[in-house]
Amino acid sequence: MAFTASELANIANAAIDFHFRKGKVFSNTIQNKPLLAKMMSKQKTFPGGKDSITVRAKGDYTTTIMGYTHDDTVTYANPANIKTATYDWKEIHAGISVTMTELKKDGISVTDSANGKGTSNHSQRDMTMLANLLEDKLEDMSEGTARGMNDMFWKDGTQDSKQVPGIRSFILDDPTSATVVAGIDQSASSWWRNRASLSINSATPSNQNLVNTLQGEFRQLRRYGGRPDYFLAGSDFIEALEKEIREKGNYSDTGFMNAGRTDAGMADLSFKGLSIQYDPTLDDDSRSKYGYVLDCKTIMPMVMEGEDMKQHNPARPEDKYVIYRAVTWTGGLICNQRNANGVYSIA
Fold it and tell me: Which of 251, 240, 236 is nearest to 208 (CA)?
């Protein structure tokens, strides 16, 4: 089978006569992924199961008190208020292939042709090698996997039924819009709703609408024991908040002066001691005006035991000189207390 145009271009780019720096490929499009970093740090395992991960949630109470005297009749309650939230687990794959011909053109021979585990460099490879083609493909798989997982954790699952529904499947822009979320009827259980306040008017910074809204919302997020610990926002949301702070002149002496120089910049923002982190993915998803306040004790990925970024080196087909590399992840994303999390946006 002949090389495709993209494969030929890839080989050519790795073997041109002159390059800025041998062996180094400079990526120009890698962004921070704070949500992914947080989610993977909170990951817990589960042993398996037929289709889903379940957690128990409770918001209603039956037992109460009553007064009595002498031989008054008293009553007894039989509480039955436990709800079950259900989250499906999914199987996620990322993989690459590379032909042995491509590697030979890059001065690399495969020593174990069954699965491509071993490679050796040609003795004078440094005379022609300007970028390690195999390492570049593996780096592409690593960054591509990270981008895909990050995108998956941000979205609501409607983009692909075989991917895990992310935080927007249970932190809804309109918490009253859906009837059932994770198997619990939120129309009958108002406690099973996230906080939300959208289209906050930030056109006049001196009105402090955004700051005042967040002030009240933090109280509500803590109302039932929530402890907000992660604040992610898009660029427009952060800029609106910066304008409100500047409007009231909340600069410190150190903010204006630094070693005798005037600094017109503002330090990174925080709210009630919680750092507000810029997440570029929100800008990419046309949600630059949004901010998410999370209690990450209530949200976490669950990965099946032994299936966390499992590496695979599939054997090559007997009739093709192609080697393969892959990673798989099997798990889901759960939330056990939605009312400790909120979404906010400016108009």
Answer: 240
Range 164-170 contact pairs with CB under 8 angstroms and sequence separation of 24 or more: 164/88, 164/89, 164/90, 164/92, 164/301, 164/331, 164/332, 164/333, 165/87, 165/88, 165/333, 166/333, 167/35, 167/292, 167/294, 167/299, 167/333, 167/335, 167/341, 169/333, 170/194, 170/335, 170/338, 170/341
Closest by CA position to 33, among listed 284, 255, 275, 208? 284
**Beta 44-46 vs 290-294: how paired, if at all?**
unpaired
Name the one residue in this structure whose structure tokens are 């709210």.
271
pLDDT, residue 16, reads 52
The predicted pLDDT at position 257 comes to 46
Spatial CA neighbour of 211 closest among 221, 201, 220, 223: 201
Please calculate the CA angle 338-344-347 and round it to the nearest 5 degrees: 150
Q: What would the pLDDT profile of 197-248 be if each residue is shown by its tens digit?
A: 999 999 999 999 999 999 999 999 999 999 999 999 999 999 999 999 888 7
pLDDT at 330: 97
DSSP for residue 295: -
pTM for the predicted model, two decimal places:
0.85
* CA–CA gap between residue 127 and residue 129 (Å, rounded): 6
- pLDDT reported for residue 119: 54
Residues of the chain short of pLDDT 70, as ranges, are 1-5, 7-26, 110-131, 249-264
The token pair at 195 is 């906080």
Degrees (nearest 5) of the Cα angle 45, 47, 39? 20
Asked if 335 contacts 85 with a C-beta cutoff of 8 angstroms, the reply is yes
Query: Residue 318 has which token pair?
Result: 């007997």
**Alpha-carbon gap, residue 288 to 234, rounded angstroms:** 4
Token digits for 266? 């503002």
**The pLDDT of residue 24:** 59
With contact defined as beta carbons under 8 Å apart, do 311 and 327 qualify? yes
Those residues with Cβ within 8 angstroms of residue 151's Cβ, 6 or more apart along the chain or in another chain: 281
Residue 347: half-sphere exposure toward Cβ, Cα within 13 Å: 8
Pairing relationship of beta strands 290-294 and 274-278 according to DSSP bridges: unpaired
